[in-house]
Design goal:
The chain is mainly beta. It has 3 helices and 12 strands. The protein has helices spanning 22-32, 72-82, 160-164; strands spanning 2-3, 13-16, 38-42, 45-55, 89-97, 103-106, 112-120, 124-130, 146-150, 155-158, 166-170, 177-185. A hairpin with a 2-residue loop joins strand 3 and strand 4. The longest helix has 11 residues, at 22-32. The protein starts with a strand and ends with a strand.
């Protein structure tokens, strides 16, 4: 498995340390205390993480609240890095990972294109493996091909191959962690 550093990952994956300041991180954590988090259910399974959606949700028929003001400056920073207009990030998702909470292998929903994330309060590991495009199941266990530590206050962008040809997961975290994920629509 390749351990990532800098931009050494699947094609289209970019990573930046210290993307936001400690003050920005604290301001976001304080704002999260006023956010109404909910259990996340996907395909009938309730995940251990709690979430808050804003803007365009997974289900286009379901309306979510507009992005709150405290997310707009960080969205603008991510958009500038990505080289796009900040309004192109049509949705934001705040994830709360309590100690012991993972997120399983997945590829973000197909209606989204660019995925950007910011890691807050503690670090985690993010693993990648090639996405299996066919529905054929084999007994061969697939393994991660890349791994990166997402340090607190860092950010990443997934575009191109890293977004389409790979899936990713985060093993159980050791300490409380939040992430903010922004996505553009296709």
């Amino acid at each position: 498995m390749r351990h990532l550093c800098g931009n050494d990952g699947p094609s289209g994956f970019q990573y930046r340390e210290d993307f936001i300041s400690e003050g920005d991180e604290q301001a976001l954590a304080d704002a999260f205390a006023r956010v109404a988090f909910a259990d996340f259910e996907l395909r009938g399974v309730i995940a251990r993480r709690r979430v808050a959606f804003f803007g365009q949700t997974y289900n286009r028929a379901t309306a979510a609240e507009p992005l709150p003001g405290f997310l707009l400056p960080i969205r603008a920073m991510v958009a500038q890095w990505a080289g796009i207009d900040s309004a192109a990030f049509a949705m934001a998702l705040i994830n709360e990972y309590r100690p012991g909470t993972p997120i399983g292998w997945h590829r973000d929903a197909p209606q989204y294109d660019i995925v950007a994330g910011i890691s807050l309060l503690s670090a985690c590991r993010m693993k990648f493996r090639p996405y299996r495009f066919t529905s054929t199941r084999t007994s061969t266990r697939r393994r991660a091909t890349h791994e990166i530590v997402l340090n607190r206050r860092s950010a990443y962008l997934m575009t191109g191959e890293s977004r389409q040809a790979y899936e990713h997961h985060i093993p159980a975290v050791a300490q409380l962690r939040y992430s903010v994920t922004f996505r553009t629509l296709r």
